[in-house]
Amino acid sequence: MTKTIEPTRSFRAHRRNRARWGLALSAGLTIAVAVVFILSMTFGSVTVAPIDVVLATIGSPTEKWHTFIIYELRLPRAVTAVVVGLALGASGAIFQRLLRNPLASPDFLGVSSGANVAVVAGFVLWNLTGYQLSLAAILGGFATAAAIYFLAGRGGISGYRFILVGIGVSALMASLTSYLLARATLNDARAAMTWLIGSVGMAKTSDIIALAIALAVLLPASAMLGKRLRVLELGDGTATALGANTRVDRALLMLAAVVLVALATAAAGPIAFVALMAGPIATRISGRADESIFRAAAVGALIVQFADLAAQHVLATPISTGIVTGFVGAPYIAWIIIRANRSGAA
Amino acid sequence: MPEDPSGKVSLPLIVDRKTTPMRRRTVLSSLTALTAAALVLAGCGADAKDDASSAGGAWSYTAGDGKTYTADKTPTRIIAHAYAAKALMEFGIKPVGIYADGKVAEDVGLQGVDFTGIEILGEEWGKIDAEKAVTLAPDLIVADWWPAEGVYSGQEEGVEDSAKKLSELADVVGPAQGDSIVGVIEGYATLAKSLGADAAAIDSAKATFDEAVARFQAATAAKPNLTALAISPYDDVYAVAVPKYAPELLDFQKWGLKVIDPETPDPEFPYWESLSFENADKYQPDVLLFDDRNAPGGQEKLASQPIAANIKAYAAGAMTNWPAYWLHTYTDYTAQLDKLTTFIESADENTGE
Amino acid sequence: MVATGRPSATAAPTTTTPPKVSIAKRIGLGGGLLLALGALAVLAFFSIALGSRSITIGTVFDAFFDPSAISPDLTVIRDMRVPRTLLAIAVGAALALGGTLLQGVARNPLADPGVMGINAGAALAIVTAIMLIGVQSAGGYVWFAFIGAGISTVLVYGLAATGREGATPVKLALAGAAVTAVFSSVTSAVVLANVDALNEMRFWQVGALSGRFMPVFWQLAPFLIAGSALALFAGRPLNTLALGDDVARALGQPVALTRSILFAIIAVLCGAATAAAGPIAFLGLMVPHIARFICGPDYRWILPYSALLGPVLLLACDITGRVVTAPGELQVGVVIGIVGAPAFIALARFRRLVQL
Question: Which residues span the membrane (chain C) (predicted)?
């Protein structure tokens, strides 16, 4: 992942350039998210021109019914796409950087599938609602991630064995979910199923609020911690020598990542592979090793936004967002394999 | 109340249009406060008076939820659930938009209705295009009221949130579903009259219907021992309808047809007794009545099950369809009753046990 | 256990030809086969005797020994439970043999038709055939299942096996996960577009044996039986392949041709099994390992053991699914997932990954 720094340039000049470039990139990505945000509220069975979207959003609509369409119908979905995408992108990047493994995403680490089962179990077995479900998702995500961590064994997470374990655990979680649904009362099963189909259009207000608060706190926090990630990326030994308290940093970052992905899952159901792709794409865009969690989050938001646009408008029948990201993410995995084949290191 | 007779679920299950509603749900909060005031006609200043037939004048209607809704002029831009729309249209009231539980062209309850010029806002249960609905600027929304759940069709739990926003556009009203289809039809007649329908046409439709009921009663009186079982073979389930929750079956019982009451309705979902196909011979009626929403799928499903040969009525070919949960008009009910009357007249009382 | 040779020329194979089996061991293994056959018979009997309708043991015997007797009980046994049991046996054998072949060809102990996305490919092809082309009968869409299974086999193996290291378990599992993700996304999109078919599909999609009777069995049995029979003769070439490509070549085996033929048999087995019971994962993973545990690395013994133990496991899971959520039914695919996923994890965790 990390590219070597050209030795000809002085370290300081390099950092200055890099900071400037990073700032420009972040600004560009923010603008892109904002533009797609407005665009996503333009389309629908009634088209509202982008300018009218803006006017309605700031409270002076061209037509009175614009307010209803924007505020009641399209804004919740558009906001969900952004916050879910931000959360997935950030958590994926954190995992990947922390574990130094491009495949270390919540999809393979079991966090998503664990959160899934927890939400279904909470709903079906204990009739939890709202924030209780969000909490269940967090606990489920943690428990599964911990299980995979321990199952993967010595040196597991930084190697590749955890992927196998993760695939196995995800399969187990899927079976458990089916089992829970089979035991559930019909009404519960129905409601759980609607959620399991996974779509940003399904999010409840409480989910969005929980996720937004978590993002407001955790995104800056992990960005700050992330600055120390570079120290971490030098490796534990070096970092310890430099006096950084890597253990606490790692734990906090991991905590933030699990909370974010669990809340995103609680809000929109399983949306596959976004966390896997966001970080590497951000790196590609910046053209160098990019340790900004914010930029990865922004890329995540863009992916979910586009995926949801496609899910809603490409086919005659709207499909769920997760189907689109699954369809897009898989070729990316294929590409990882091909790249590994070429370099001979898998 | 169209219910899903299947007691089992597995991934990926989607709320299915035939299964439709997850009726018998928790009670939803009553109608949301009307926020978009410019879009609705608030019931301010109108006197609640019963005679509201004069178009253009003040309007009031007591709906199935027990509340009296008023407006200072008779609503004209109506969005209705497809079945409600059919009921209103029979009495000459044409809505501007409808939403259906399934494909309008395929829904057995919507055959022969001309929806030209009416915006179709949804053709799948739980999905209503609220965006299009806004542009129609409705001043009334009409649907069945389900007393058990305390909601109108289209506002049930499980319906998409955006679809539920429909209720913020205008008052939702409609007669209550109860223990008889006749009550529902009369409820729509009252509503249609308040909206300006021709009372004479309504009375003539009712007269024709009353004759059909008389013929049906005569047919059942001639076969006092004829038993019928209302079923919906579905997935891995042989679902037997519980008449208590099927208003048309209650009507049939009232008019002399012995529709079998299943012994052990599902505890979770008492609209049906779900039997596995291995036990499909539990009841041996003289005639089988298939849920016509699934026709001919239901008969094909049973035909593919070897046990079918052990159900005497099936083996004897003594079967027909039953209009399941969709009747809303005198015309439809008359036609369905006449079909059943003919069927009963030719049925054999000694097929079953 | 599995041969540990690597395909690259640099790594020397570490095992030689399977040791000659002594007469005593041969008798022991043969006895084991008889034991497995006995277990299969017992489970088949339970599968026929148990169900939501309670039928006395005496009646169960009547169904077979008194052909003239007719009653609803006998209909349930002869026409509903027997076909289901037969189908379970055929599907179990096909999936277990498919998994064994796959592990042998890919020389990878984590290879499984489910994990590798082969069943997902077959499922997509079947859904496409039914919904977009309008094929109705199992005998019709099974051909599409073969094509789908074949395409995904080639895709996954091709993706994983290129590169210097060959098909490592991680690459195979990843490629399988990727292909499964794409195929099941498309399957979901196709199914969601047609609500009517969704009902037909939703039980089948998780892997289920219910509601399948004699006509389906007769349509699929030829493929399942023919595929299984061919697979049973693959012991010798699999043993040779296990030595590594170079040794196999030196022994005069046309490696590429052998692989292609074996992959074709896998596609037939998995395609037909998926057409019969939906995409079931992990059965093909577990059974070969159990077989290997019993009889060692010789595929000439592993194959017949798999052919018997596959149905044993599938029937056991199917019966469990009928019992735990009675009077409802838990799909057999779910039960196998709950049993099989931990097995997969244990294999991934405790086997040395280099030996692939």
Answer: 27-50, 86-106, 118-135, 142-160, 172-195, 216-235, 261-287, 299-324, 330-350
